[in-house]
TrEMBL record:
GO cellular component terms, semicolon-separated: mitochondrion
Protein known as: Uncharacterized protein
Organism: Carnegiea gigantea
Family designation: Belongs to the IPP transferase family.
Keywords in alphabetical order: ATP-binding, Cytokinin biosynthesis, Nucleotide-binding, Transferase
One Pfam family from the record: IPPT
Top-rank lineage group of the source organism: Eukaryota
Higher taxonomy: Eukaryota, Viridiplantae, Streptophyta, Embryophyta, Tracheophyta
Gene Ontology molecular-function annotations: AMP dimethylallyltransferase activity; ATP binding; tRNA dimethylallyltransferase activity
One annotated GO biological process: tRNA modification
Length: 294
């Protein structure tokens, strides 16, 4: 593990320190961000392009306030999706202002999210909106970064993601989506912002046809749930592919292996938290300490 090369590849243009937590959806980025922010006096900047918007809190898996441990969160649920989409350039400008203001208050900025196409232009010294298709990754970073990635073996992660969708449905996801559908927000701005959240397009047919017979309704509901699960697995896979491209392009991303903890969680073992601390939290504290503070 080459801990110091991340520092070496920085340009020096800006020397602010930033912890970055990358990884697929559902892999524990949010939980880890709270642990790191608590340990290192940090504030969190959201880098999930869908969680930027107000609304659909269950569907988009926003961290509830009572789980935030008093940590300040930036760019989380701040924008009105009906007014248009936050572009990559706007995100970069907002997030870099947040980094400066957090640093100015002598706290540590922690960037967390799965939207690699927003993370890359923010961190990279050379803006290339097509980086994930061109494959030409710039190694120069604008900040002194500690790059971390949650990694969970795909079959283990998918099992967890499937259960997470069931839990989201039990927690009121369908009512939330029904309200969104009825508010017609989706008609004002098609394929923009929240309208793209996994769950919105998948449940559209169900809401549209609802009331046309019980059997048909049940079949459409099952189909929507199945599509949400499949599209979530696909999202996780694509997010990891993008992270692998950045690694192959020279980004020194430190992988944290959450597989054992997730396996134990799925099996209902109450020892999962020990594995989480051993395999994820402690290594992440050590890596951040070495990369940013040694
Ligand atoms: P892409 O270029 O594929 O949009 P990206 O890196 O910009 O990739 P991702 O975060 O991978 O953005 O999101 C891609 C898509 O995944 C979103 O447009 C949305 O459909 C879905 N998605 C992402 N995050 C969420 C979320 N929190 N809740 C629901 N759906 C999400």
């Amino acid at each position: 593990m080459n801990l110091l090369s991340t520092v070496a590849q920085d340009t020096g243009a800006k020397r602010e320190k930033v912890v970055v937590i990358m990884g697929p959806t559902g892999s524990g980025k949010t939980k880890l961000s709270i642990e790191l922010a608590t340990r290192f006096n940090g504030e969190i900047i959201n880098a999930d392009k869908i969680q930027l918007y107000k609304g659909l809190d269950i569907t988009t898996n926003k961290i509830p306030v009572d789980q935030q441990n008093g940590i300040v969160h930036h760019l989380l649920g701040k924008f009105d999706s009906a007014l248009g989409e936050v572009t990559q350039a706007e995100f970069s400008s907002l997030a870099s202002s947040a980094i400066s203001s957090i640093t100015g208050r002598h706290r540590l900025p922690i960037l967390v999210g799965g939207s690699n196409s927003y993370i890359y232009p923010l961190l990279s010294a050379q803006f290339d909106p097509n980086v994930f298709t061109s494959g030409l990754v710039s190694q120069e970073l604008r900040y002194q970064c500690c790059l971390l990635c949650m990694n969970v073996s795909p079959p283990v992660l998918n099992e967890y993601l499937g259960k997470r969708v069931d839990d989201m449905i039990d927690s009121g996801m369908v009512d939330e989506l029904a309200e969104f559908y009825e508010s017609k927000i989706h008609e004002w701005a098609p394929d923009v912002g929240l309208r793209k959240a996994i769950g919105v397009p998948e449940f559209e047919r169900y809401f549209h046809m609802k009331g046309n017979g019980q059997l048909r309704e049940e079949a459409l509901f099952e189909e929507a749930v199945r599509d949400v699960k499949e599209n979530t697995y696909g999202l996780a896979r694509r997010q990891m592919e993008k992270i692998q491209r950045l690694r192959m392009g020279g980004w020194n991303i430190h992988m944290l292996n959450g597989t054992t903890a997730f396996m134990m969680l799925s099996e209902g073992s109450n020892k999962w938290l020990d594995a989480w601390k051993r395999d994820v939290v402690t290594p992440s504290f050590n890596i951040c300490g070495l990369v940013l503070f040694s």
